[in-house]
Design brief:
alpha+beta; 3-stranded antiparallel beta sheet; 3 helices; 8 strands; globular
Length: 176
């Protein structure tokens, strides 16, 4: 009887462990869905020294597998929507977005840039015309929150996304 109880407890523990692993999204490649994003870093810097507000984006894949990041962040020449959260640093009020708004269909694989293992990707985008910066000299904070993933097909299907968040950076800009 004692051996049966121990075998039953062991079987229950194994079943529970398997259920937890499946719930965590473990796949055949041994990686949890979204885990690759802990290996992807995003950093922002703002250069407002020449009368423009340029956001420098640095994406780095420190993982061993490819990662897929939004092309809008990684390579867009102009904004097609409110990509960044820009706020007045003193009041916390959002700076109104006044740039173009492109209505689009569902995401496709082309909406993501493949970031190879160990790769770093840099991109710069001028956001000056897209946000209604107040006239005069003001301090602002800019942040980014989006998603990325290790499986582009899962991202397109609306699953497998993990947060891709850049801490807010402060900058001063003098608008005319």
């Amino acid at each position: 009887m004692r051996k049966t109880a121990t075998s039953s407890a062991t079987a229950s523990a194994l079943a529970l462990a398997l259920a937890l692993l499946l719930a965590a999204g473990i796949h055949d490649n041994g990686r949890a869905e979204g885990q690759a994003m802990s290996d992807v870093g995003v950093q922002l810097a703002v250069d407002s020294s020449d009368g423009h507000v340029r956001v420098d984006v640095r994406l780095e894949n420190r993982g061993k597998l490819p990662a897929y990041v939004p092309r809008a962040l990684a390579s867009a020449r102009q904004l097609d929507g409110r990509l960044f959260d820009v706020r007045d640093a003193r009041t916390g009020e959002p700076v109104p977005y006044q740039g173009r708004m492109v209505k689009r269909g569902p995401l496709t694989a082309d909406d993501f840039l493949t970031l190879a293992p160990g790769a770093t990707h840099r991109h710069s985008i001028d956001i000056t015309p897209a946000y209604a910066f107040a006239p005069g000299k003001h301090e602002y904070r800019l942040a980014y929150e989006g998603v990325a993933g290790g499986d582009v097909q899962a991202l397109v299907a609306g699953s497998g996304a993990a947060p891709l968040v850049a801490p807010a950076v402060s900058f001063t800009y003098t608008a005319r």
